[in-house]
């Protein structure tokens, strides 16, 4: 048996962003590390919700943790108990942004015996599974920390509190079980240990080691995977938007049964002129999911509520006249995407297009949560918005003659480049998010995208999700 060399721990943070089978394929134990009276031990009375029978806030939190652990335990296989040290504690937070939680392998391991690879880095739980014994008796495999302040006061995302039910019926709240499944996925190995910001591999006793991930991370521009690259090449690859892909055989075989046509805005009509054509769009984490049947209507711009502000307040009579029964075109800025969409919906709009307010190669994803928004909402680049607005310049008060259709393109699979599933590689690099997630262009949304989307179920496997598919390819 080779020596197991323990490197520093690693975590992946997520920002705001029925019971499992009794015959679990792995046992996952949650260790409550909170002090008395706080976190999992918070005695605040709580009514049972969504299948969670806890009668205190702390009990409900712990129930949700164990429920998520059981879902993972019914999916992965290991003869060694997986131990998660867990706590609900205050984390970085403001009124508008914050950290939901983080989880990662307690230690990173090098020097595995076969069937593991001695020349790669593994997380602790995966090492135990491959080796068949507990390499760190008495040590937790995964560390998990979640934000106890979320939605509890005005200084921590007051409109985004935790939903502690087990049934996905979270409404406008943030579904704790979904976030736990995401973060536990990181702890089980859904991340590279190579530094994407610098391209540097971690070293053990002065020797650089690739992550077991890095054999499957490929840059479609260079045609190289990360093990073949220099640090400078990996650094550039991590921000090569749309061209960083995952090439493992299981995921490559699975995606045709999981992902579907790319969302698109088709602009047509006699008044469209040079704006006619198809536009790539960014998807929202709220509202109706785009479909092949589409949502079609005239595109109408929204007049600003104040200089530089559009859609942040209930619509004026003039804007209601413009967007009623039509698709509203609104500039990004000042308030949240879901706020703009809700105000447009309340004014009678059948869909929303949000124009980016900065120059970028791709349209942004639209984060946020509002279960009352039921119309489709998408984004377009700043340049696309300018082109469409030029066609709207000669509109009547409530008619533009420019027709938009929010639909999907069955000829282009969303989230795939060159036959492989895309990884998240924005420019500039986003620490904690870049590389170690599927890309936000995946359609339908996947659990291991960098933001938690409101339409996610608690699925970990195809045909809904490819999280376990990737983990199986690296050794699970």
Describe what you observe in this structure:
It is a single chain. The protein has 476 residues and is of the alpha+beta class. Mean pLDDT is 91; it is low at 1-23. The strands form 6 sheets. An 8-stranded mixed sheet has the order 17-16-23-19-20-21-22-18, sandwiched between helices. The chain has helices spanning 57-73, 124-131, 176-188, 231-237, 249-254, 317-323, 337-346, 382-392, 467-473; strands at 5-7, 12-15, 28-32, 82-89, 99-105, 108-110, 122-123, 142-147, 162-163, 174-175, 202-204, 207-209, 217-219, 224-225, 244-246, 261-268, 277-280, 282-283, 295-301, 327-331, 351-355, 377-380, 403-413, 416-417, 420-422. The protein contains 9 helices and 25 strands. The longest helix is centred in the N-terminal third of the chain and has 17 residues, at 57-73. 18% of the residues lie in helices and 22% in strands.
Write the layout of secondary structure elements.
Layout: E1 5-7, E2 12-15, E3 28-32, H1 57-73, E4 82-89, E5 99-105, E6 108-110, E7 122-123, H2 124-131, E8 142-147, E9 162-163, E10 174-175, H3 176-188, E11 202-204, E12 207-209, E13 217-219, E14 224-225, H4 231-237, E15 244-246, H5 249-254, E16 261-268, E17 277-280, E18 282-283, E19 295-301, H6 317-323, E20 327-331, H7 337-346, E21 351-355, E22 377-380, H8 382-392, E23 403-413, E24 416-417, E25 420-422, H9 467-473
């Amino acid at each position: 048996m080779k020596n197991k060399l323990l490197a520093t721990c690693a975590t992946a943070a997520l920002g705001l962003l029925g019971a499992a089978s009794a015959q679990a394929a792995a046992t996952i134990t949650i260790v409550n590390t909170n002090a008395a009276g706080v976190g999992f031990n918070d005695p605040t009375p709580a009514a049972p919700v969504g299948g969670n029978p806890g009668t205190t806030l702390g009990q409900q939190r712990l129930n949700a943790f164990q429920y998520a652990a059981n879902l993972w335990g019914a999916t992965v296989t290991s003869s060694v108990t997986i131990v998660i040290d867990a706590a609900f504690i205050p984390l970085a937070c403001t009124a508008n942004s914050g950290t939901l939680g983080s989880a990662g392998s307690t230690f990173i391991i090098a020097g595995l015996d076969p069937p593991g690879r001695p020349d790669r880095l593994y997380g602790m739980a995966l090492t135990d599974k491959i080796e068949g014994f507990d390499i760190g008796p008495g040590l937790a495999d995964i560390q998990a920390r979640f934000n106890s302040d979320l939605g509890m006061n005005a200084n921590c995302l007051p409109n985004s509190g935790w939903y502690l039910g087990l049934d996905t019926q979270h409404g406008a709240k943030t579904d704790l079980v979904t976030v736990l499944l995401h973060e536990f996925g990181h702890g089980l190995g859904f991340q590279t240990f190579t530094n994407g910001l610098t391209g540097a591999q971690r070293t053990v006793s002065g020797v650089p080691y690739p992550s077991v991930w890095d054999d499957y991370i490929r840059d479609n521009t260079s045609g190289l995977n990360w093990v073949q690259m220099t640090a400078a090449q990996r650094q550039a690859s991590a921000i090569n938007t749309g061209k960083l892909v995952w090439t493992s055989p299981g995921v490559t075989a699975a995606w045709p049964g999981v992902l579907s046509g790319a969302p698109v805005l088709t602009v047509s009509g006699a008044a469209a002129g040079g704006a006619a054509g198809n536009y790539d769009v960014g998807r929202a984490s709220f509202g109706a999911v785009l479909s092949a049947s589409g949502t079609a209507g005239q595109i109408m711009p929204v007049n600003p509520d104040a200089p530089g502000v559009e859609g942040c307040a209930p619509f004026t009579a003039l804007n209601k006249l413009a967007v009623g029964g039509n698709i509203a075109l609104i500039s990004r800025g000042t308030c949240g995407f879901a706020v703009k969409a809700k105000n447009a919906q309340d004014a009678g709009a059948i869909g929303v297009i949000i124009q980016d307010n900065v120059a970028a190669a791709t349209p942004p994803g639209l984060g946020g949560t509002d279960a009352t928004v039921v119309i489709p909402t998408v984004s377009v680049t700043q340049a696309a918005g300018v082109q469409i607005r030029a066609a709207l310049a000669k509109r009547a008060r409530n008619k533009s003659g420019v027709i938009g259709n929010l639909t999907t393109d069955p000829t282009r699979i969303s989230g795939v480049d060159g036959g492989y599933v895309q990884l998240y590689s924005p420019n500039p690099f986003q620490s904690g998010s870049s590389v170690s997630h599927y890309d936000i262009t995946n359609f339908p949304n996947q659990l291991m995208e960098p933001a938690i989307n409101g339409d996610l179920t608690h699925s970990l496997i195809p045909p809904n999700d490819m999280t376990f598919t990737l983990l199986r390819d690296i050794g699970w």
